[in-house]
């Protein structure tokens, strides 16, 4: 037992994000909201200035604003060429945001995709909050061997890990990072071009920088340890914490309606960004077989894809929309708000999730949280969610998916019994539970 | 009777040996001198590579690009032999050299000067020819050209040209000296050669005093680092691209931990390097032009050696050099060709794919310095040039 440890919770990603939390930002935000509860007075929130290789402390009020998306902390590069470019970038961003279609197209080029609703929300926040607002007081943290820095954000974008490694050598503080998945290293063909190099570089340096990692599933932990082994080195110790899945009641006065294409229909639902890794194609082919062999009712039954349009799916979506067997029976919904999504979940017959690989597989947890039967692939971390409450098939087993879809589309009683069992037996992991596991692990390993 | 004077003819000068072919010629010359044979070496060289001070007075430049495959890379050796034979002034020059030196034998280094040698031998009836092979050149050239995206039919034509040349040389040669048992088998079985002797590639014994180079300390401090040396010869660069830098060099913390020396430093131009530029720059120190003293200083300070060769025949001088150092060695099978006896030697790790190679490099960097046994050290004595020649029986063949 040594001196009292000080925990630095890194909010760099939330501070840069400045909009509604999604994906990794939501994880950072959910943990940050609960960090004080577990770390008490030993906690300081911080952001990282990659231009100066400094860790800067921020007060709780500033942290709360960043977590809520009410404050964007844009750390500027030192005066010089990069500094002069910053206003230009800001102007460009504002110009792009002024046209939602253009902004949407621009983000797609970067491998990101937002629904129209999200673009509107981002625009409201970005354009309403003056970006020139003075930065809050931030003071460099005195890092030392009794400091544990906790990071779970988009570090490949906002951190210079080589510089951070050098800082660690100097100050001897400890660094703990969340690892979401190793997909860019293991399955680079499923990653947006450009991100493979960025992420490979990130993991290569994370290995040297992190004293410990916390993975979001056992599968990711296994991947991480295998990755360490491939580097020929001692593995960086890894713990596991599950992501939380709190189904939020949707606020608002308007009562959502089912999209017109789904009114009066019986449908299987797949909620996911549309991109090659998610494996929409196997569902398309299975559904095509179902329709052509009249295993489903082409008038009554639908397969529904809800999600943003990702990368490398143009030809696939064209195929879906031109194929006579699927053009009217597969429904693609790209812009669905939270309230409407809840309703779509509520009315679906069952959920499908055939992904080639997942570091966690939140949609399966969400499906179970909605009380819906789910057929999932058995890839990556997916078998860790839901136990035998989920039917699992191989991600390349097209006949298996055809058979399962055809069967459950015509077995309402079986689905009802399955839903009852989910209601009785499924215990969703809340963010409170996830945070407890996360911070307990941090504290145990830090001491 | 024995040979007292031999004239060597090749495609690169031997005044200041740098790359493997030059070092072998240099070692042959030293050996011949040690047994009382005078060895003069002349060549037709590429002036874009060898400038003043690097060539001998009898050497002549290959200064035009003939129309024969003008756009095909890596064939100046082949072209220089053709041009020399077709150039009456060059033929006259080398005939004069032959007449002035009056050698007891003409030794052809590589097969490429065969067209010129053939013309010279026509005018010097009865002069024995010694063929000094450095590789079985035809398949090697084909693989290099294919790697450079040369059309397969052009590669095949060039392969056949070199193969024909090598067969003619073998048919004419009184003695063939080659670098490995597999090359000897090729010459015996495919070229019907009868008198073939193997002199493996070797390495100079280390100088008595290796000075500590301040530059090494500046770059690496007291940290462990691995050492890799090679010319810009395509198999060296290809091997480094495929096995060392592809997917980034993350085998160590982001500090210099790999010294890359010689022409192989041109790998920095390739996409595999630039893809992970920042990570690679943090870990690799390049020494593109390095003199022998500095090279010895680096080798002496290195924790281990990296041998990654993409393709090629013969044996690698770099491999002999690395094994003779008695340090850790990470090598692929191609690099170990001809040194199979050492493939399982203490400290030698064979790795033939990118993942295994990276794993081995990282493992070696974390391992303590290897202390090879006295037995292993003695076994490696055969790697030094003097032993390569004395064990080969070459002296007996040169005396009759």
Write the layout of secondary structure elements.
The complex is a heterodimer of chains A (447) and B (400).
Chain A: E1 6-10, H1 12-17, H2 23-39, E2 43-49, E3 54-58, H3 60-67, H4 81-97, H5 100-109, H6 116-128, E4 139-140, E5 147-151, H7 155-158, H8 161-171, E6 174-179, H9 183-186, H10 195-209, E7 212-215, H11 218-230, E8 238-240, E9 266-271, H12 280-292, E10 301-306, H13 314-322, E11 330-333, H14 338-347, E12 350-353, H15 362-369, E13 374-377, E14 390-393, H16 398-409, H17 412-425, H18 431-446
Parallel strand pairs in A: 1-2, 1-5, 5-6, 6-7, 7-8, 9-10, 9-12, 10-11, 12-13, 13-14
Antiparallel strand pairs in A: 2-3, 3-4
Helix pairs in contact in A: 2-18, 5-6, 8-10, 12-16
Chain B: E1 5-10, H1 20-34, E2 38-45, E3 60-61, H2 76-86, H3 88-101, E4 105-109, H4 114-122, E5 129-132, H5 137-147, H6 152-172, E6 175-178, H7 181-190, E7 196-198, H8 214-220, E8 226-229, H9 234-245, E9 258-261, H10 271-274, H11 277-283, E10 284-287, H12 292-301, E11 304-307, H13 317-325, E12 328-331, H14 333-336, E13 348-350, H15 354-366, H16 374-379, H17 385-392, H18 394-397
How would you summarize what this structure contains?
The complex is a heterodimer of chains A (447) and B (400). With 447 residues, chain A is an alpha/beta fold. Chain A has 18 helices and 14 strands.
Secondary-structure content class of chain A:
alpha/beta
Number of E-state strands of chain A: 14
- Poorly predicted sequence stretches spanning 5 or more consecutive residues of chain B: none
Going by CATH, the architecture of the largest domain in chain A would be: 3-Layer(aba) Sandwich
- Terminal Cα span of chain A: 7 Å
Spatial arrangement of strands, main beta sheet of chain A: 4-3-2-1-5-6-7-8
Number of helices of chain A: 18
Strand content of chain A: 5-15%
Largest sheet of chain B: 7 strands, parallel
> Any idea of the CATH class of the largest domain in chain A?
Alpha Beta
**Rg estimate of chain A, integer Å:** 23 Å
Q: Tell me the greatest interface.
A: A-B, 16 and 20 residues
